[in-house]
Amino acid sequence: MHSNFYTEQCLKASVNTCGDCIKSGPGCAWCKDLNFTKTGEQEAARCDTPAVLKEKGCPPTDIINPKNDFIKISNKPLKAGENPVQIQPQEIQLDLRPGMPYTFQLHFKRAQGYPVDLYYLMDLSYSMKDDLENVKNLGNDLLKELNKITGSARIGFGSFVDKTLLPYTDTNEAKLKRPCSDKNEPCQPAFGFQHVLPLTKDGDKFKSMVAEQHISGNLDPPEGSLDAIMQAAVCVNEIGWGNSTRLLVLATDDGFHMAGDGKLAAILEPNRETCQLVDRKYSKSTLWDYPSVGQVARKLEEQNIQPIFAVTKKMETVYTELSKLIPKSAVGVLSEDSGNVVNLIVDAYNSLSSEVIMAHEALPEFISVKYTSDCKDGEKPSDRGKCDNVNIGTEVIFDVTVTVDRCINSQSFLIGPLGFNEKLKVNVRTRCDCECDDINQPHPHCKEKGKVVCGSCRCDPGFLGQHCECQVGQKDVASLKAQCQKDNGTECEGKGDCVCGRCQCHLTEGGNNFYGEFCECDDEHCEKYANKQCAGHGKCKCGRCECNEGYEGAACQCAKSDEDCKIDGIVCHERGKCVCNQCVCQGGYKGPSCKVCPTCQRPCQESGSCVECLAFGTGPFEKNCLENCKHLQHVMVEKLIKHDCRVKDKEGCWMLFTMTEQLGFDKYIVNVLKDRECPEGPNIAAIVGGSIAAVALIGLLILLIIKGVLYASDLREWKRFEKDRKHEKTSGTNPLFQNATTTVQNPTFSGDS
Fold it and tell me: For a surface tag, which of 108, 271, 409, 418 has the fewest beta carbons within 10 Å of its beta carbon?
């Protein structure tokens, strides 16, 4: 029996008394020496770790530091006829200091001859016809085999089909009375669940009662298995469950309906988890929905019933998955006619009995329990302790660690192995008060205005201060109130009273105090998860969860792990944080591992200067390239199939390169084409030659145009001439001759000579 190691630290909140100090944390102690605090020093200085108090000069005898205490309550003597005791101790008393874990040992030893109750729950749908014939002869053989193991065994029998409503069962009146397809086959009316035989040691009675059973039928393949299991678990008196190892064998060849399937038949009322047998038949079959797997698992665990699913090969996978959700359950494969059922049950019983799962029932608020053991994989603390392959007579030891988070009234809870009725009762009280043996009278240390309690003054009404020196009303009210306002806000944050310039905090709804200089803190309003403050994995301090080791999240709801955030060992591609085993991406990256950034573009232009200096040794970063371009790694290549970027360098050449993103932000591998696309210089000869050729061509074109115009004019004149010649031939006149426009007479000329 020992207290666990914990980090010795004292996270002081609002501390005015020894009781406040003890409640602040398991690492806190109180110095009751009268002269320990200096004038003007707050009483909170008396509260610190024992080591610090010793350093400050507090005598060891004046240090109050309550420890955990363990009291083993004597086990009750075993009476004649009672089952052997398998668990030790059977009741303990723990006096625990809040926040200080305490570990004790719980011993379990499988006893020889521990009784067994086995209830055989059979599917009587028509497809189980051959199996029923074998089960009718099962009783004596099964009792014989179980008695070999335990020496005391009882068996019972119940059967089920499905709800007698559409679409599960044909509701035609004739079909309800006789749902079997073979008219010559004995057949009983459709039913949901019926309890046939309570647990008994009489194998012949089992045989005779089961012999009276006949096959029935329904429409759809899934059966009402969960309805039947629920009634078998909650009808304790009707079934006859005793103080024993309780086994429930479910024999079926099909799947099962579950919560929500009742809506198909307009059944909306949820399963109430209570016994509803009338004349041994389930009376609420057509009124209540099927139970959920969680409801069934909880009730089986509450009643310490271990289910064995005896199913056909085709259903093995379905019931194996169901078994994973129900602690202490097993799955066995039936032969075609259930001929192997006895061996199947015996093997399943041996498997279940050799597995010991130590667990607790519902814990009182603010109490947590963890288990470790010396079994395989048992060294890691968990919510349940587990040991496999535990033989009869073998003792296993579990280390049970109990922690109380805050001061509570006396509470108790039960711990025990699943599948067994024996339980350890744990009674818990908290140590939250200081025992100081003070004299109950006015003391000079308190100016006769108060009494000394654990080294500090408890002032009379109307007085306040380290030595009760402050009398209310003697100081300026406004200045006193101003000392109680944070950032000129509400006095004591509305959660306390300003007395003599100091906040006296009110009680919270939970009965604790607000605390802090301005009563701004409390330990009751932190984020919740699964309706538990800080998910039960941390402590609420001043409105924020301080998570236990191994947990994180605003409500301590997540086990610390980054496994789901890793790809090839890299967390979130180095572009985010792993919170609650999920990547919280940054910088616009998305996806479960922050791999892609839908809105990001290649930084071609931004990287141009770095590419120029890294690849070609020129550009603005020529002198300090490595310092400015650490984020890029460049590779020169002879050829690029395609390029992401085309950027001009300082010389006007085009650089072609691709950018491949690396882990983290703004990190790239750059493949740069060795040859840049640079513009060539001017060809003077070509320019001059081209200019001359152009001028000559233009001149030639002009000449050709002029020549063309003249030719056209001459052609037109020639055509007119030809026309006039033709006219001369017909008129006798020369078309080219023109008459004189002026006549000059010669005076010397005579026409008669």
Answer: 409
Count of CB atoms within 10 A of residue 706's CB? 10
User: 3-state DSSP: the chain helix, strand, coil percent, rounded to 5?
Assistant: 25, 25, 45
pLDDT interval class at 748 (50, 70, 90)? low
> Which residue, 561, 555, 589, 749, is CA-closest to 664?
589
Burial of residue 292 (number of CB atoms within 10 Å: 0-12, 13-18, 19+): middle
Strand, helix or coil for residue 288: strand
Residue 193, judged by CB atoms within 10 A of its CB (0-12, 13-18, 19+), counts as: buried
State the maximum Cα–Cα separation within the chain, in Å, rounded to a whole number.
Answer: 202
Q: What burial class does residue 314 get, using C-beta atoms within 10 Å of its C-beta: 0-12 exposed, 13-18 middle, 19+ buried?
A: exposed
Q: Residue 415: phi, psi to the nearest 5?
A: -125, 140
DSSP for 484-536, please give it: TBGGG-SBGGGSEEEETTEEEEPB-TTS-B-BSTTS-B-SS---EETTEEGGG
pLDDT digits (tens, 9 = 90+) for 669-717: 899 888 888 877 667 777 788 888 888 899 889 989 998 888 888 888 8
Segment 8-37 shows an average pLDDT of 81
Q: Which amino acid is at 671?
A: N
Q: Contact, 455 vs 34, CB < 8 A?
A: yes
Q: What is the rounded CA–CA span in Å between residue 420 and residue 435?
A: 42
Q: Residues with Cβ < 8 Å from 338, sequence gap 6 or more?
A: 130, 131, 134, 135, 251, 310
Cα 499 to Cα 458: distance, rounded to the nearest angstrom: 14
Question: What is the Cα–Cα distance from 37 to 516, expressed in whole angstroms?
Answer: 20
Determine the Cα–Cα distance for residues 609 and 620; give it in Å rounded to an integer: 6
Give pLDDT tens digits for 410-450.
999 999 988 888 889 999 999 888 888 777 788 888 888 88
CA atoms in the 13 A half-sphere facing the CB of 653: 18
Amino acid identity of residue 161, one-letter, is V
Q: Which of 604, 602, 603, 599 is nearest to 588 (CA)?
A: 599
Please name the residue ranges forming H helices in 648-731. Answer: 684-731
Kindly report the pTM of this predicted structure.
0.56
Q: Could you give the 3-state DSSP secondary structure of residue 64?
A: strand
Name which of 108, 111, 73 is nearest 425 in CA terms: 73
CB count within 10 Å of CB 4 equals: 16
Q: Which two tokens stand for residue 420?
A: 């067994």
Cα angle 689, 694, 696 (rounded to 5 degrees) comes to 95
Residue 503 near residue 520, CB atoms below 8 Å = no
pLDDT in tens, 56-100: 889 998 888 888 888 777 565 555 456 678 888 989 999 999 888
The sign one gets for the Cα dihedral 96, 101, 104, 106 is: positive
Contact by Cβ (8 Å): 170, 207: no
> Shortest CA distance to 440 belongs to which of 455, 452, 457?
452
Q: Is the predicted pLDDT of residue 753 greater than 50, yes or no?
A: no
> What's the gap between Cα 701 and its chain centre?
88
pLDDT at residue 467 is higher than 80: no
Q: How far apart are CA 249 and CA 311, in angstroms?
A: 10
